[in-house]
Records
---
Amino acid sequence: MNNTIDPERLRQRLADARAERLQASLQRRHRKEAVFRGLGLGAVCLALGFLAVLLFTIFSQGMSAFRSSHVQLTLEFDAQRLGDAGSERERLEQYQTWLDEALLRALDAPESRASAVRPLLSAAAVYQVRDRLEDVAARPGGRATLWVLASDEVDLIQTGVVDRAWPEAARSLSDQHLAWIDRLSEAELLERRYNRAFFTGADSREPEVAGIWGAVVGSFLTLVVTLALAFPVGVATAVYLEEFAPRNRLTDLIELNINNLAAVPSIIFGLLGLAIFINTLGMPRSAPLVGGLVLTLITLPTIIIATRSALRAVPNSLRDAATGMGASRLQVTLHHVLPMAMPGILTGTIIGLAQALGETAPLLMIGMVAFIANVPSGFADPATVLPVQIFIWSDSPERAFIAKTSAAIMVLLGFLAVMNLAAVLLRRRFEHRLK
Amino acid sequence: MVFLRRAEPPQSSSALAAASATQSSSGFLPGALVDRPRLSARDISVYYADVQAITNVSMDVAQHEILALIGPSGCGKTTLLRTFNRMNDSVRGCRVTGNVIFDGEPIYRKGVDPVALRARMGIVFQKPNPFPKSIYDNVAYGPRLHGLVDRQAELDEVVEASLQRTGLWNEVKDRLHKPALSLSGGQQQRLCIARTIAIAPEIILMDEPCSALDPIATARIESLMRELARNHSIIIVTHNMQQAARVSDRTAYFHEGHLIEIGTTDQIFTTPEQSLTEDYITGRYG
């Protein structure tokens, strides 16, 4: 009798106990929800915290690289001596002499030797003088005032990276140099000014003149090759596989391989590029052309997979509508499916390109890690790219490259942010057009 | 039993009935064949991979009639409809045996271009599916696609006439270049019908065209169908038996992929011969 359930009594009991039990279970459910929400929020905060630390480190180290120390010097030329100098080398030596004289005058230390004061100026200062003041120097009694680059050691003292309190042996500048720096500062002849060389120059052994423009142009040329190859090939592949290909063992195999390709370590693609493009096909080393080809291989799976999922997201009712109107398979694809999938395709492409922009390892294999002091002017010129430039600088022994590295990272992050923004904007525009 | 009454008398049912009575032979259900058919299914079977969806269906569609295909869910009505204009070609694993004769020509044969076939046989789907373009571009799509018109003025004329015939013209004439997706569901479905008739198809296939619409929009489309039947043959799949009774001249009842019974709508709804049909239309099944 106890085991049988009386439906009437059960119902009565449920009705009586409902409010109480519901209350208890609701509390339990709400508690669980609060815990889950707290965990999610915690994860977000943790991620944001890491990001903040990363950005703070990069910015605090890198900001100083956008300015560099300059010394204001008044140069007194002698056109006669310049005319006597025969070779380009002799002329340069003459400029160096004038520069040394000007510095000694500014330091008010005429008894010092030129070689003693030279560590204050950048090795590039003499070229600055020659390039900017060639006309003045050729005039009789020529005289001009110019801000020339100070050496990276002076800049490190100025930014406080090298502490003046360190023992003299631990610094590359002597106490005498420090005294001179103070004298220049007091006379307002030493200033940290906008570092134009950083944005317009190529790499250099001298940190104060090393710039990222060469790497930016190299990255741009490489990405142009990548985009020109990976976008059409990737989209065509995805369209064929998704809209035209019969489903059989062969297409399954292709699909499997494409998905696997996305997971292949990128350095393997670098080896492949080295073996095929450079060794077999004889393409130039360190060239954006080869870099672009290698990055195409890496970007293709990303674009194909993104395009396929964008195509799959196009509702079949749209294909049916066009097919039912008598459109051929190609017309259905070109008139309706591709335009509708375009936001997704473009987003995938830009994400693929952003990935290619940050790729380093495969480019090391094809020689884009070489020291290249010129801005590349074509697809076959030796070049390097932004992330490789960061790698090279981070590996350099000079202290001043620490700030350069962080500054280059900031530039790279800036480009990535712009590309992602472009992806968002393009997507919005296309979606707006469809509605 | 006679709880469903036709809204209006069939236009040609007596002639059809007479024709089918004289022509039916041992291989065909009585009432399956008509005199001078527009479209004929002969021994059609359809398989999806290993599953047989349609089994040996043979039937005719007459000139300018409305034929309703009814039956419980999964009975193969939609599959058969899509077999008529080879829409199943693009469905993976779908296989068709038997043949469909359109204008005396078998359509399942090498050398038949399904694109040309679909240009003569329009289809309207269950869910309104206008293109994400303007209203004008939706209707103009077919004529442009097939190069049916030479001048812009002609295209304008075709678009206006198609919208007029679907009763949509007055509602949209001031916003022809607005997105089609801004229309209401009923308007979208009428736009889809306008889009279909803009290429002057000989046959219009309709796959539950009113299932997503409210009763007012449904009534509109039903009267539109009667209007269209003057120039086109219409095959309509419907779950709504009142609708089949109201609009169709003939009705075919399907059950698990078999054609159970076909005849004039009057006869099917008042004196069905098969018990399956009777169970379904009286609501005992499905």
---
Amino acid sequence: MPIWNQHLSRRRLLKGVLATAGGVAVANWGGLFHSSAVAQDAARRSKRCILLWMNGGASQIDTFDMKPGRPTGGPFRPIQTNVNGIQVCEYLPRLARMTDKLAIIRSMRTQSPDHPDGIYHMHTCYRQSERVPHPEIGAMIAKFVGNPDSDIPSFVRIGSTGNAGSGYLGPRYEPFSMGHDCRMPYFSTPISTPQTQQRRGELLRFLEDQFGAQHRAEPFLSHRTSEARAQRLMRARSVFDISADWPRSQERYGNTDFGRGCFMARKLVEAGVPFVEVGQENYDSHADNFVCHRGNMDVLDPAWSGLLTDLQERGLLQDTLVVWMGEVGRTPYINNRAGRDHFVRAWTIVLAGGGIRGGQVYGATDQNGREVRDNPVSEGDLFATIYTTLGINPRARHYVGTRPVWATPEGAQAIRTLLG
Amino acid sequence: MKVDMKLIRGLILPIFVLLLHVTQAPAQQKAPLSWTLGWDADWVTAVSFLDNQRIAAGNKLGQILVWKLSEKMGEPAPSLRLDGHSNTINRLLTSPDGLLISASNDHTIRIWDTGKPAKGSDTIVLNDSARRDKLERKQKPPVAVEAKVQVIDASRVLSGHKDWILGLSLTKDGKTLVSGDNKGEIIVWDMPDAREKRRLKTKGWVWAMAVSPRGESLLIADRIHLVFDSGRHAGLQLLDMKTGGVQRDLSKDKDFAKHMYAAAAFSPDGKIAAVARGGEVDGLNGKVTLLDPATGKKIRELTPGHLNGATDVVFHPDGKHLFSSGRDTTVRMWKVDDGKLAREFGQPRGGQFKDWIHAVAVSPDGRWLAGADMAGAVRIWSLGSR
């Protein structure tokens, strides 16, 4: 059944409006354009997703697809993991002990080799050059898996992450963005008492309702949606307060921005946020690739392994998909700046949890890591796998004007061997 | 008066060329390149003179070769291969009694007696990479440049470090060796027994390190190489070798704060220290700074800096000159007393980004200068009789 979201009728708008306890009408976070059957199915299973975004593009050869002894190998050495036959970089020792949870896709072959287009493509599975404004994976998951009754946002970004936003899904699914240090945006802090805030809000909404009855334009809807979200967020902001718990978790996650972001992600999915993206910087290592990656892995290893451990201990890992990826891989060739440049012909992405079958490697590259040897995986295939895991139909259809668009491009196939 | 336009037109180009030459030509005298010791297995990353006739170099694969130099012969071939390391050679030093000491990314320090009997011999191909490249492109490879080498193992292997060892320094009498790694562990070794005497700790990864000639002070540059993250760290400290305490934290000084230093050295009399900014820095900021170790104050900055960063710094045995290498394929000789650039060796090579000279060394008699060239060679220049 097609999902209409562009030509929004008043009836549909009203259907999506809820009455809050205080009698305040607030737009539904995720319910307006919901495909009820799929959403109910996903909600029943309470699937969630955390995307660990390696901004700039991590090197596959220096992490999960090592080439020791080859001219492309670099100075890092592989270590044995807890899965026989799978090796990872020596600077990922904690993850090496959790490799039975990881599904390592070594055969990514993608199409967008630079940062803006790569970031867009790896967040939407569509090229940036297309005229249709595609939604990020976070918006799509928020729509299909999010709880429309929740006060907290359904799509949260921490640090440097995606660049597409909610695209054709509309303002309701725009991300809620936090700083790399998990600082809340300024608008989320009330400047007056809750009672005053509520009275002011009611007055504002009354005036806007009057105005809105005569002006049903998209910008106005967008404005009202954002405002409603801010109001709701102010009520729910305690969910974002990790000051009491973080000191006890620093050792597990590492006392870094990214570690804190991963801890925040765990807290948020536990509180019901269906999608959280946490960005780690510093991967665009055209120069000094090895010291860059060494520094990054010192941050990444405890943060990522701490997140998986925490999720597992709390019984959340089975229903929380953790995706590790960036916009590009890095060249096997080491340039004269001791760097590696962008590379999209053969690189690596890792999935864990959420029902993914861990302890396996999918696909392979040649001996120098220059080409995919087995089972190439496209952006669409990856997204189809992620959506399938989360209970979202990869061929879910929307309309932009009269034009149908699908969640993943035609021909995209979920990787069945990764699905548990 | 009639103007001869033809003559003017004819003069414009020569005048322009002359002006260009006058403004761009380096004021320094170019030194003659005496030898290029080709070895293209991988980047040559470290170099040290064993004596006035023999030189050792290490590469990114962990291999070390020794050449014997002679002014009476042409391009010398390596005579010795030192087997044992399995990862990048970061530093090579020679002790006063002629032992070679190497520090590697394989977490070990190895001490080599190059006079000991060989365990065997082998034939190596010095242009193997060039040949392999051609073959991969299905082109005719160049003729193999072969050398027969004797092979020896290390006399001692020091395994106290658990990470990449980038810092290595020796006192003038050779009795104290100091090494530092990427976990911030610093080990002080009693030589020649290589007995671990003390451990010190820094916050970041030890990158550059120099112990004063008489062993009172240790100059340490450490870092945590993160570009944007709040965990980024750049430190520069003078430590007291007796107590291990901090004598001076130079990273709090505006002249040194936030800079990462790839190399450090003390002058032979210990009265001056030099640090060289490394990593990929903007423009000509790969500068060497001279400082007074007694006060921790900057003496002067040597300009221009190396394009995109400096890689190594070493004093000439006369103490009056200093050499620096960089990511611009050049080695520079500076006058210590006034900071003037005296000579420049090598030429910028590469595209937008140049090849690196990774490390430099000067022979004990001060007559030869060697540079470890990323392109797969050791370059040796004559300094004449200084």
---
Amino acid sequence: MFQFLLKRFGVLIPTFLGVTILTFVFVHLIPGDPVLIMAGERGLSPERHAELMAQLGLDKPLYQQYFNYLIGIFHGDLGVSFKSQIPVWEEFVPRFKATFELGMSAMVFAVFFGIPIGVLAAVKRGSIFDHTAISLSLTGYSMPIFWWGMMLVMLVSVHLNLTPVSGRVSDMLFLDDSNPLTGFMLIDTLFWGEEGDFIDAVQHLILPSIVLGTIPLAVIVRMTRSAMLEVLNEDYIRTARAKGVSRWRIIMVHALRNAMIPVVTIIGLQVGSMLAGAILTETVFSWPGIGRWLIDSLQRRDYPVVQSGVLIVATLIILVNLVIDMLYGIINPRIRHKK
Amino acid sequence: MALLEVKELAVQFGEFKAVDRISYQVEQGQVVGIVGESGSGKSVSSLAIMGLIDFPGKVTANALHFDGHDLKTISEKARRRIVGADVAMIFQDPMTSLNPCFTVGYQIMEAIKIHHGGSKKQRRERAIKLLNCVGIPDPANRLNVYPHQLSGGMSQRVMIAIAIACNPKLLIADEPTTALDVTIQGQIIELLLDLQKKDNMALVLITHDLALVAEAAHKIIVMYAGQIVEIGDAEVIFKSPLHPYTQALLNSLPEFTQDKQRLASLSGVVPGKYDRPHGCLLNPRCPYADKQCKTVEPILHARSENRQVKCHYPLSPEGNPSYE
């Protein structure tokens, strides 16, 4: 296990360096001058422009800028936002909590519904339920997120008036700063909010979670279904039946455990694409998360924010996949014992 | 009354008859060998007895009695109480027949738990005893081992341990040694026969290897294309086969091929869904077939006590067809 982890972390370092180079190069390839964008329509004199460029360190050659950036990272300094003058890490943390909360509840939604639906579709193969599940998941998978989000808002929030339109909590909601707030609305409102605040936070979370969870849901349904179909044909399922094991137990214990191996892989991969989906979902629902933060910073050519933001996100995805790899060992004894 | 009585059992997949109206009996403590080429319906007929044929397969029978239970009309729940307890089965490929996600101990104890219950400690002790019984060294530690850590022979021993966990009255072994090394094959058969003798259990040994059942079985059932073509006591059938197919199977054994360049073989293959011939199903491959064989299907008829054959011209003791 230790060797396995060591190997994994060995891969992490080159990946990490690669990400820094890519984000740095791409951000600087985008035309546009952060100083001019900050100045806005008023414009500014060439002298003042040069002075600001020097102040931000943008007058140096690109390779030098890159090395300064890299050295900063290794000192734990991710840079300071051009716009807010706040260190990137400090800007990142609260926004990440918002995204994390949204992503987790979207994933819970996808897994909670996806696996049972997939199992049922496989068990009742060829039935109306199976066909419905398959075609709906294809529809869900091919639906543009922003369109789906807006349609849901129109229907559920505007016409039926069931959930709020946007944001994490209602504007009127007030949480006292003197409490040890975690930044996760569900937790904060539950422990320190007034009566009804928690419900309010949940209501705000429902629609964005459904929107963000739709694609993972569709993928999990299909993957679970096909994995189950494959496993149910295996010899060991026949053995279990010959032992007199009940049908329910065969499906839930003997088959599902084996079918979970590819499904867990897919869930891990979905975490990455969910961050992409979060950008659109957060835009539609005005969710103050990293998706919106990165898009806004990119439009302002806020180089440090974009570079470091992408770097953190990439590192997170790598770490998630590392956790998934370790999960395999728990699910599948064959991987655990491989030397 | 016989322990297992099968009458006119048929299994159909759509139009294709995988098993075609077979009837036989297995007595308490009897060893029955079912032999035939691949595709002759040996496995499917036993799966049907176990109730393991899934849609679209269709099982019909005039009678399907096991130990006083009518397996035809029994409810799914009542069948599960019998299957795995009173009648158990082991399969061809032991490496894929064990669930890779669970330990050997778990899989043995599951069978005990379902049928006998008992405390966890009792089940564990029973599992250790079973592993000991099937000749696995260091059984207490082997309980925590996963199937991929076992060899093929060891896996088959575990499968046998699972099958005999609840002291079955009938054990069906579906080609138990086909996937194993020759050296292991003998050991596994020996183990099965030992267990059979010890508990006076009935054993149905399905195989395409006549030599394997030659010494072990009391009764031999020869199947071809889903039908029974010959039934007889083991010694008699080997000395003087009545059916040309049985004769061909015996001739193809390496033991009969001394001083010859090639192994004798029957040309052609078992007919499938689209090439079932008229008359006797063996007629395209039978060296003795005449006009009658190509038009009229012979019936399985008794020649003497315990001896039945499905042929128009059963062979004489010298091995020649008895044309009238």
---
Amino acid sequence: MSTLQSFLIVSALLFGIGLTGVLTRRNAILVLLGIEFMLNAANLNFIAFWRFGPNPEALTGVMFALFAIAVAAAEAAVGLALVIAIYRHARTANLDAVEELKG
Amino acid sequence: MNTALLIFATITLAGAAAAMTLRNLIHCALAGAVAFLGLAGLFLGLGAEFVAFGQVLVYVGAVAILIVIAVLLTRPARVAGESPRVEPWLPGVGIGVLVTGALVAMVKASLVARSPEAVSSPAAPVKAIGERLMTTYVLPLEVLGLLLTAALIGAVLLALRDPGEARRP
């Protein structure tokens, strides 16, 4: 098994942990944390492919990872502000308790 | 993968698993910070120093603290004896395991398995990254600055107290 492959498997496992957390946790903050794990797994893929792929001097993977980190920071700030706004309105951060828009 | 990278990978996966399974929300947030730190170690081992330090600054420094503060602000949500999971939790776990299995199987079966080991160890010096950011990627950089400003203003507006809302006792 090549080194790139082992990094890809670590990334797949991290993605799976994040996805399982997003699908099973009740608290909205931990759902956001799971989304951050999935974004980080993608970043690990970018860096691994940059390191072991052709043309590493183009720095494409590094640039993509840097921009992804910045966008994820913006997403976390807005997401947590939304959680706090929902908490103030519904007095809970549990996702199954916030069901006013449920059809 | 050498021993150091193996240790960092274990720290990352264990931290992420703990963050997604522990009951206490503060413990979850801190385990998440440990996972982000392990990931920064992996980036460092792969030769992407700038990304690793950015990861420490943004994730361990900012996002983890933000999550802890959000947990503190929504504290009474945790009632003793309440389940931390959604009630039929088995389908979620099943989907997660299925997706992970599919991803791992695809990685194992892909052409990547037969690719030769990289002989060169590429570096990403900060000077080269800065030059790229100021030339090739200058437009995305400016758009990103705009996005971060908009996100900052939006987050403040969202979390701002409504003027009509009664003050909490």
